[in-house]
Write a structure and sequence with these properties.
Layout (H helix, E strand, L loop, with lengths): L2 H23 L8 H24 L5 H47 L1
């Protein structure tokens, strides 16, 4: 792979990481944010994949290089999905704990 092509892929990877960071900013502790990972995946499919396929069509990338790069991108989607689950999990536990504390307070008042 030529250096200029590698630089282009580095720029694309930086874009993907910036998008991921942006989507994480929309996550809520209440959960239900699975749609963020789906939108992130769609954004990669819509904007990154055609560019990478064009590099392949112009013979700047081999099929293996295309697969490797797209795997890196979609692995970021899976990482986002797992992070969203992690963000939601503590709040669900906290919700149970808050309910328990409220119930305990109510019992003490009686």
């Amino acid at each position: 792979m030529e250096d200029n092509v590698r630089k282009e892929l580095d720029v694309l990877k930086t874009m993907v990481l910036n998008w991921k960071r942006s989507y994480l900013g929309f996550a809520t502790p209440e959960g239900g944010d699975e749609y963020l990972a789906e939108e992130f995946s769609a954004e990669i499919s819509e904007h990154i994949s055609p560019f990478v396929m064009r590099l392949y069509a112009c013979k700047y990338l081999t099929p293996d290089e295309v697969n490797d790069f797209m795997d890196v991108c979609y692995n970021e989607v899976e990482d986002l999905r797992q992070t969203l689950e992690t963000i939601a999990a503590p709040s669900q536990k906290k919700g149970i704990l808050v309910k328990f504390v409220e119930h305990t307070k109510e019992m003490w008042r009686r």
